[in-house]
Structure formats: C-alpha cells, structure tokens
Design goal:
It contains seven helices and no strands. The protein is mainly alpha-helical and 113 residues long. The protein is globular and about 45 Å long. The termini are far apart. The mean pLDDT is 81.
Length: 113
C-alpha cells in the first residue's frame, strides 16, 4: 500500500474521497483514515478494492519505489501473489497465518526451556 500513489492517482483522475468511497463501497470515514495514514494496516481486500477503483496495476505498484526495502525474491513473491484469484490469495494468507502462529509457539517453547 502506497498512500502517496493513491493520492496522486485520485488527483490525476479528478476524484474525491467521496468518489472513491462510492466506487469501492467502503465508508467515507474508512477511506479518510486510510488516506490519512491512521489506518496503518487495512485488510488486503480493502487495498485491492481501492487499487481496482483507481485503476492501478498491482504489478506496477509492487515494482515501484514504494517497496524499496524488498529483495528481488520478495518482489517476485508479491508479483506471483498479485496474479492469484481471490481463493488463491485467501489460501496463501491462511497458510502464512498458520506458519507464523506455529513459529510463535515454537519460539515461546524455546524461551521457556
């Protein structure tokens, strides 16, 4: 998510936050919180709705300077992820949550040993 790209695109398209809210079906308050940076971790499907409504290509965003700290491998993974359908993305998210939960439990057990 790159708020500056969203704001720039809104301006270029002559759209308001109200227009974006209407086009995405999200609340105006939610759009304002995201654009102000208050909502720091919006859901992925929310971001996808905003990017779709703005006509942004996820591949362009991923490979832009919005992600300068990512390695080439991480960018490739994001590019592959962006090509998945909704169910594929859901499966990847569930897998990552499960893996992260398992890792957290493993770390806690080692700390207590």
């Amino acid at each position: 998510m790159d708020i500056e790209i969203y704001k720039k695109t809104l301006k270029e398209k002559g759209m308001t936050y109200e227009d974006l809210a209407q086009k995405t079906g999200l609340s105006l308050g939610g759009i304002k919180r995201i654009m102000a940076g208050i909502a720091k971790y919006p859901r992925i499907d929310t971001i996808e709705m905003i990017e779709h409504a703005l006509g942004l290509d996820q591949q362009e965003i991923i490979t832009s300077s919005a992600f300068p700290a990512l390695t080439l491998e991480e960018r490739e993974i994001l590019a592959l992820y962006s090509n998945l359908d909704h169910m594929g993305k859901k499966l990847v998210r569930q897998t990552l949550v499960t893996l992260n939960s398992s890792e957290s439990v493993h770390i806690q057990k080692n700390k207590n040993s």
